[in-house]
Specification:
Blueprint (H helix, E strand, L loop, with lengths): L108
Length: 108
């Protein structure tokens, strides 16, 4: 026969582990007023979207605006260069009732 045995039990309550989900929503559109979007060794990329300016411009200094299998389109506007060149390789510049004009003045 086993006699009475005094025992003490300690119960340790652990903190509960809760699963949490953080939802981060990206802006659908962004707008700047009198501000600049600037990248260094980076790029601004859009897929099936448009970068549009109203009464403004997209300007680069010693950089390139490049398209792959795309185009630069203007409506009632123009593409202007100063002391620079618009160059094409194995492609063409075409227009429908549109002309590219350059004025040459010979000074003697």
């Amino acid at each position: 026969m086993i006699g009475n045995v005094n025992s003490t039990f300690y119960f340790l309550q652990l903190p509960s582990i809760q699963e949490s989900t953080k939802i981060v929503e990206a802006a659908i559109s962004s707008s700047t007023t009198d501000e600049v979007i600037s990248t260094t060794y980076g790029m601004i990329s859009t897929t099936d979207e448009v970068i549009s300016t109203t009464d403004g411009m997209i300007s680069t200094t010693d950089e390139v605006i490049s398209t792959t299998n795309g185009m630069i389109s203007t409506t009632y506007g123009m593409i202007s260069t100063t002391d620079e060149v618009i160059s094409t390789i194995t492609s063409m510049v075409s227009g429908n009732t549109i002309a590219f004009q350059r004025s040459i003045t010979i000074v003697s």
